[in-house]
Amino acid sequence: MNENMVNPEETRDVDLPRLLRAVWRRSWIVALVSILSVVLVFFGTYFLITPKYEASAMFYVNNSSINVGDATVSLSSSDITASKSLVDTYIVILDTWETQRDVIDFAGVNLTCEQFMEMVSSSAVNETEVFRVTITSEDPEEAEKLANAVAYILPKRIDSIVEGTSAQIVSSARTPSKPSSPNYVVNCIVGFIIGFVFSIGIIALREGFDITIRTEEDIIQNSRLPLLAKVPDMTLKTKSDGYGYGKTAKKKTVQSEKKAGLIGSGISFAASEAYKMLRTKIEFSFTDDYMCPVIGVSSA
């Protein structure tokens, strides 16, 4: 390896401004990939994911007292801890296979207890004495039937097991009019984020492994040799460049889009000064007793 080149195994700092510039230059790619990800997720959700419906029934816990065997515990209806304990007890009763079998038979659906367990969920409502039982199904009518079957069977099971307490129906289940899942908005947002992060990651990796020399910073990072001068771009594209080698930058003509000569009366002031600086630095790069008669110029 050339001793004047930086060892690629040496630790190099991440050039964040360079990565940001690379992402900005390819922002159209980021936008395109993000939009395509949203489109793919939308159609994937629409065609591949089966909609599911939720039907819920709510119950109120009447906890005047609990009689378990020979022990009797009196509880106040305002006692949040006791209410929460009763709600948990009722949820456990719902999870028994006897209750599930009675619910399935009453609803008249063809399900196993395992299938029913995957469809039902229950929880207390904001840590109050009210708890909700929710049935999730691909058929909205089936969800409504099972939820109302729970509303009919569960209070009777509770009365037969826990004496002195009861569960009153607060709200019966209704047939859901729209699916609860999938959520197209959330899925599309997730798809956009995935496409956005993926495209930026690919651009950053490509820029990180790119060894092409484009700027003076690239030369400084990859070489131990000093940078003598920087000659501006010799292509005049816009008025704001001001570094062109053709006509002046005030006129935007067809000639301004072409390559101009290296010498001539139309050379810009900035380019002329850059050549003078290069000449001066070359002269001072050699001692008086050793002059270089030939200088080679090579394209990158």
Describe this structure in words.
With about 300 residues, this protein is α+β, with helices and mostly antiparallel strands. Helix content is about 45%, strand content about 10%. It has nine helices and six strands; from the N terminus they run H-H-E-E-E-H-H-H-E-E-H-E-H-H-H. The protein has helices at about 15-25, 25-50, 80-95, 95-105, 115-120, 140-160, 185-210, 215-220, 270-285, and strands spanning about 55-60, 65-70, 70-75, 120-125, 130-135, 165-170. Strands 4-5-1-6 form a four-stranded antiparallel sheet. The longest helix has 26 residues, at about 185-210. It is rod-shaped, with a radius of gyration of 38 Å. The two termini are about 20 Å apart. Mean pLDDT is about 80; it is low at about 65-80 and about 240-260.
- Main beta-sheet annotation: 4 strands, antiparallel
Could you give the order of the helices and strands? HHEEEHHHEEHEHHH
**Beta-strand content bin:** 5-15%
User: Rg, please?
Assistant: 38 Å
Shape: rod-shaped
The counted number of beta strands is 6
Spans where pLDDT lies below 50 across 5 or more residues: 65-78, 238-261
Helical content class: 40-55%
- The side-by-side strand order for the widest beta sheet comes to 4-5-1-6
Mean pLDDT: 78
Number of helices: 9
Distance between the termini: 18 Å
Structural class: alpha+beta
Give me a quick take on this structure.
The protein is of the alpha+beta class and 300 residues long. It contains 9 helices and 6 strands, in the order ααβββαααββαβααα. β2 and β3 form a beta hairpin.
